[in-house]
Specification:
By secondary structure, this protein is of the alpha/beta class. Helix content is 43%, strand content 17%.
C-alpha cells in the first residue's frame, strides 16, 4: 500500500511528542508498505524557521519530502491573538487567523497533495491543530486517517475545528478520553476509528547501578521526562517539589530529562540531564523510584508508557483526564490535585516500595495489552484497509 504520512516536523533530533510518535509509526509502516513522509523544513515549533533543505531526503531509511514554511511565527504576531481566541470573546475570522498564525504555513505541501493525492492509497495526518493537517486533510478526507493528539485545552474548543473533526475517514485515537473529548466537541454520536496509541522502541538498558555511575546520579530520585515548559506543569512541579523536600524528604532528588523551554531552577535536589539517548532515558527511568507527570493536558503520554515498560509506577496530575484514566485502568500509580495530595501520594509511594513496585508491574501488564507494537500495528493495518478500500 502507498502511504503518505503528514506531520509538521520530522527528524531524528526531534525526540518527543507527536513528531516522535509519527516517526516511529512511519518507520514501522515502512516495513510492509511504501511510505513517504510529507513535512516542513522546520525544526523549531516556536518560530517555524526553515532549517532543512527543501526536497527529498531520507530519515532512518524512510523517504521524506520537505517543503519550506512560507513565514516565521513571531510572538508579536501570535501571542495576543492566541490569548484572545483561547480566553476571550472573538470572531470566526479571528479563529481562522489563529490557524494561519499558529502555522506552519506550508503551501507547497498542500499543493503537492492536490497534485499527487492519487499517488497515495492512504494518508495519515498527525496533530489536528497545525496548518499542515488542517489544510492538508481537506484535500482527500475519504482516504485520510487523523491521529488528532487532542488535549483538553483551548484549541480543541475553537469553532473552526468542529466541521473539520467530521472529515477524516478514520481516527487513530491515543486514548478513550481523547475520543470522548472529540465526541463532546463535535456533538457526534460516534467517530470512525480505533483507540491505537503508540508503542515504545526497545533500547539496550543498563542496570540502575550502572546508569547511576555513568550519569553521576546520587541518592533516591524521581524522574520527569518531556519538554520542560510551563504548559507541561513544570513550574508547578518545581515549586511543589522544593516545598516537599524542605518539609518531608530532604534527601530526595528530582531528575529531569528533556529540552528546557522554562529555566530549570538552581536547586541542590534538582538535576537536569538534558536530552539523552533512548537507552539512557529508559535506564534512568528504571532506576527511579517513580515517574512524576504534572501536565494538565495530554492526549497520551509516551513518558508514562516508558515508565510502565520499565515497571515503574507513576504519579500524575489528576486534572488531566487522560493521565488519570490511564493510571486508573492500569492500576499503575496514583494521581494528585493540590500540593497536599502531591505530598501525601508521593510520600505513600516512597514509604511503600512493595506496593509501588506492584503498581509498576500492573502498568507493564497494561502496556503489553494495549501498547505493544504488534497490537498497535494491527490496528493501523485495519484502519489503512478501511480507508484504502
Amino acid at each position: 500500500m502507498r502511504i503518505g504520512v503528514v506531520v509538521q516536523r520530522y527528524g531524528e533530533e526531534i525526540v518527543g511528542g507527536a513528531e516522535l510518535h509519527a516517526r516511529w509509526i512511519a518507520q514501522r509502516l515502512a516495513r510492509t508498505h511504501q511510505v513517504e513522509v510529507l513535512t516542513t523544513c522546520a525544526v523549531d515549533y516556536l518560530t517555524w524557521e526553515n532549517r532543512y533543505e527543501p526536497g527529498r531526503a531520507e530519515v532512518g531509511g524512510v523517504p521524506v519530502r520537505r517543503f519550506p514554511v512560507a513565514r516565521r511565527r513571531t510572538p508579536e504576531g501570535f501571542d495576543e491573538l492566541s490569548s484572545k481566541v483561547h480566553f476571550f470573546e472573538h470572531s470566526d475570522d479571528e479563529e481562522r487567523r489563529w490557524v494561519e498564525a499558529h502555522g506552519p504555513v506550508t503551501p507547497g505541501l498542500v499543493d503537492h497533495l492536490r497534485a499527487h493525492e492519487r499517488d497515495y492509497d492512504a494518508l495519515v495526518f498527525f496533530s489536528y491543530r497545525y496548518w499542515t493537517t488542517y489544510h492538508g486533510l481537506q484535500v482527500a478526507p475519504r482516504k485520510s486517517i487523523l491521529v488528532p493528539t487532542a488535549e483538553e485545552d483551548g484549541a480543541v474548543r475553537l469553532r473552526v475545528f468542529k466541521p473539520f473533526f467530521r472529515l477524516p475517514a478514520q481516527y487513530a485515537f491515543n486514548s478513550p478520553e481523547e475520543k470522548d473529548l472529540l465526541l463532546r466537541m463535535t456533538g457526534a454520536r460516534d467517530l470512525p476509528g480505533e483507540v491505537v496509541g503508540v508503542g515504545i522502541e526497545d533500547a539496550p538498558v543498563v542496570t540502575p547501578d550502572e546508569i547511576r555511575k555513568r550519569l553521576d546520579l546520587l541518592g533516591d530520585f524521581i524522574v520527569y521526562v518531556g519538554r520542560i515548559e510551563r504548559e507541561k506543569g513544570c513550574a508547578r512541579l518545581f515549586d511543589e517539589f522544593a516545598r516537599f523536600v524542605q518539609e518531608r524528604q530532604p534527601h530526595l532528588n528530582l531528575v529531569l530529562i528533556g529540552r528546557p523551554v522554562l529555566p530549570v531552577p538552581q536547586h541542590v535536589n534538582i538535576a537536569h540531564l538534558g536530552v539523552v539517548s533512548d537507552a539512557e532515558k529508559l535506564s534512568v527511568i528504571g532506576a527511579a523510584k517513580l515517574l512524576v507527570h504534572p501536565s494538565p493536558f495530554e492526549s497520551l503520554s509516551m513518558a508514562l508508557l516508558e515508565a510502565w515498560k520499565m515497571e515503574r509506577p507513576a504519579l500524575v496530575n489528576a486534572k488531566c483526564a487522560v493521565l488519570r484514566g490511564q493510571v486508573q485502568r492500569a492500576g499503575g500509580g496514583l494521581y494528585y490535585g493540590g500540593y497536599e495530595e502531591f505530598a501525601e501520594t508521593l510520600s505513600w509511594l516512597l514509604e511503600h516500595p512493595a506496593q509501588a513496585d506492584a503498581m509498576g508491574r500492573g502498568g507493564r501488564a497494561y502496556f503489553e495489552r494495549h501498547y505493544a507494537w504488534d497490537v498497535v500495528m494491527a490496528k493501523y493495518d485495519r484502519l489503512l484497509r478501511a480507508v484504502a478500500g
